[in-house]
Amino acid sequence: MNKQTVTGTLTIVERMRSSPSGNPRFLVRVGNTLYRTMPDSDFGYDVTNLEGKEVEVAVRMYHEHPSIESGGPVPIIGRTT
Q1: Widest pairwise Cα distance in the chain
Q2: Which of 3, 4, 24, 31 could hold 44 in an S-S bridge, CB 3.0 to 4.6 Å?
Q3: What pTM was estimated for this model as a whole?
Q4: CA angle 47-16-36, nearest 5°?
């Protein structure tokens, strides 16, 4: 999978073990697909504030797992609901 942009509602599935640097990691669902947050990405700190909200995320494969590289809330002007 090349880097793609995905939009959907973010749901936290599980808090994963922190990265070796101590940064948070999560298994989340965006739309109908499961993603992991990338180790040591700033997005790991944003996840809890984005749960239940419509987000736009940049995703790519990382160690054979679909992973979120970055993202944030969809601006009100671009929301579908």
Answers
A1: 38
A2: 24
A3: 0.83
A4: 60
> Domain limits of the chain?
4-78
Alpha-carbon distance 81 to 77, whole Å?
10
Specify the fold of 4-78: OB fold (Dihydrolipoamide Acetyltransferase, E2P) (2.40.50)
CA distances to 25, 49, 52, 67, 74 from 5, rounded to whole Å, are 20, 20, 18, 11, 12
Within 8 A by CB and 6+ apart from 70, the residues are 41, 42, 43, 57, 58
Contact call for residues 62 and 25 (beta carbons, < 8 A): no
Taking the alpha carbons at both ends of the chain, their separation in whole angstroms is: 28
